[in-house]
Request: fold
Amino acid sequence: QFESFNDIINYGITAKRTGDTTVTVSGTPTADANISIPDAVTIPATAPTISAQPQNLELTYGYTEGSVSVTATAATDTTYNDLTYQWYTNTTAVSEGGTAITENGTSAAYTIPTGKNAGKTEYYYCVVTATRADNSQTATATSDVATVTVVKADSTVTTAPTAKTLTYNGSAQELINAGEAKGGTMQYVLGLDATTAPTTGYTTSIPKATDAGTYYVWYKVVGDENHTDVAPKVLKVTIENADQGETKIETEVKTDEKSPKLETSDLTKEAFHLAYEAESKIPDRHPHTQIGRAHV
Reply:
């Protein structure tokens, strides 16, 4: 191609640039004439303009869509073919030295593949190319770097634990019905009250207790590598006393000073303790005192 130059006139001959690639020589020489025409040069393309840069993107684990994009236009100094795009991924936040994305990476927008784990950070940039229609010369513009990160999704309690209805039976009893979680593991611990959640001691085992009384079972979800934890919550559980209904005992207590002294305590439908102290004389034997406790 010829760069612009003024008409060259020499001894009746005129050399005129009539196009990017043509010079027209005309006229009638009046003498021997030498005309020097500038060498043809390759006219370069002008780089496109990127008017909208790719933006940083935060995706939540399990995402179904997400993309980065650029908006670019060709220069107006000549006619250009359609702009072309090539996206790159990099391990650092710089727009050079990356790896070209061969699958779906040649459009103005690039869709981030699904299935990436939480904690993943990648860097993307795009190179936009403008190609002159007349001489196929090209020029490029490189976008800014977009940082794409994948963060943890929330774990959830799918079935909340529930308190059991319990009565003292002398054995250790599980205090709650187990819960279920999605994205993590349900864990439990016995606390001291209903207001202060323990910070340690959580396990997957259901807490047990034996004695009658009130207990506070704290539970939480410990998220896996792709899910967050669920904050502790509490269940109040009571083990009721066994039935304290009285059992009548028919006794005959004599007022004689040598009569047995009889006491009863802890009477229930199931059992009572009989404490007694008796002094007696058995024929042909030494006087003695009998002390004992009977379960009836």
